[in-house]
Amino acid sequence: PVSRKHSDFDAIRVGDTLRVNGNTHTVIVLEKKEDSVIIAEGNYNGAIHWDRELSRKSLEDGDFTVRSRWEQ
């Protein structure tokens, strides 16, 4: 179960799911970097994609939501 929802880039952790693209697409965080995340995603142009990098700026400019199963 989701333990919390937030939109704080600094609080993103590996395993979190992000809702992006106007809350229409879900991606999974594989790796967290200082100013980006590496993700996996399904049903992106009909395929699964691994290791795409999303910048902090693109996430914050695009109104993302984090769904985390980590306890605070």
Can you offer a commentary on this structure?
- With 72 residues, the protein is mainly beta.
- 8% of the residues lie in helices and 51% in strands.
- It has 1 helix and 6 strands.
- The chain has one helix at residues 56-61, and strands at 4-6, 17-20, 25-32, 36-44, 47-55, 65-68.
- The chain has a 6-stranded antiparallel sheet with strand order 1-6-2-3-4-5.
- Strand 3 and strand 4 (36-44) form a beta hairpin.
- The protein is globular.
- The protein starts with a strand and ends with a strand.
- The mean pLDDT is 93.
Note the total helix count: 1
Residues in helices, as a percent range? under 10%
Distance between the termini: 14 Å
User: Which strand order spans the largest sheet, edge to edge or round the barrel?
Assistant: 1-6-2-3-4-5
Query: What's the helix-strand series?
Result: EEEEEHE
Which regions contain 5 or more consecutive residues with pLDDT less than 50?
Answer: none
Anisotropy-based shape:
globular
Query: How would you state the average pLDDT, rounded?
Result: 93
Percent in strands: over 45%
